[in-house]
Design goal:
The protein is α+β, with helices and mostly antiparallel strands and 201 residues long. The protein has one domain (19-178). The chain is 44% helix and 16% strand. It is built from 9 helices and 7 strands, in the order H-E-H-H-H-H-E-E-H-E-H-E-E-E-H-H. The chain has helices spanning 5-12, 24-37, 42-49, 52-55, 59-70, 92-104, 121-132, 167-178, 186-190, and strands at 19-20, 77-80, 84-88, 109-113, 135-142, 145-151, 165-166. The strands form 2 sheets. A 5-stranded mixed β-sheet has the order 2-3-4-6-5, with helices on one face. It has a two-stranded antiparallel ribbon with strand order 1-7. Strand 2 (77-80) and strand 3 (84-88) form a beta hairpin. It is globular, with a radius of gyration of 19 Å. This is DUF3726 domain-containing protein. It comes from Litoreibacter ponti.
Length: 201
């Protein structure tokens, strides 16, 4: 997938990107809000936010994750059986949790067709490896097809330490997160948003 124009421009301008330090917890919260603002279900947004330590190790991965959160998102289309699952037109933000759940629950293989951001498959599986202690093998039987199977020995390579957050993805994540905010009106304050009409702190 070629990606949006902003991402193509960003990737071609690297590797020295304008960036600033952000705390891990702050980026996890921002990714969560951005996922919800981008239209992901809560659980899927939480799964993307959990990848923050891995995404922050590489500015390009974080930029791709930002594009993935921007969507568009659609329901996961599956074929095959529980043991041999096939996901058509796979979008990593939606298909990633389905892929991991299937493998952890005993699937022999999961096939992804036309995955939008193949590079993001590595942090998804590396996080699953850490959480579940499971290992996976990735094969590419076709130009637009990836097959993931359980493995006894194949381990995802460790990711590096968190890097400063590049400003362009940060701005786009912030814009997505802003879609979750309640407008500052008298009615919203009366219903509990913000500090309220009287702030005695």
């Amino acid at each position: 997938m070629s990606g949006p124009d902003w991402l193509s421009d960003f990737l071609s301008a690297g590797p020295d990107y304008p960036a600033e330090r952000r705390a891990m917890a702050e980026m996890q919260a921002l990714l969560l809000k951005a996922g919800i603002g981008g239209g992901l279900p809560l659980g899927h947004a939480q799964d993307m936010a959990a990848l923050a330590p891995l995404l922050m190790s590489d500015p390009q991965l974080l930029a791709m994750a930002t594009a993935a959160l921007e969507g568009p998102h659609h329901a996961v289309r599956t074929e095959g059986t529980a043991q041999h699952l096939v996901i058509e037109q796979a979008r990593i933000a939606m298909a990633g949790p389905v892929l991991v759940d299937a493998l952890i629950c005993g699937a022999d293989r999961v096939v992804l067709h036309d995955l939008d951001w193949p590079m993001l498959l590595w942090p998804v599986l590396a996080h699953a490896q850490k959480v579940f202690g499971a290992y996976f093998q990735i094969d590419k039987p076709g130009k637009h097809t990836l097959m993931i199977t359980p493995s006894e020995t194949d381990r995802m390579e460790p990711f590096g330490p968190a890097q400063p957050v590049p400003l362009i993805p940060l701005e786009r994540l912030t814009a997505l997160a802003a879609k979750t905010y309640v407008p500052a009106t008298e009615a919203s304050r009366l219903s509990g948003a913000g500090a309220g009409l009287r702030d005695n702190d």
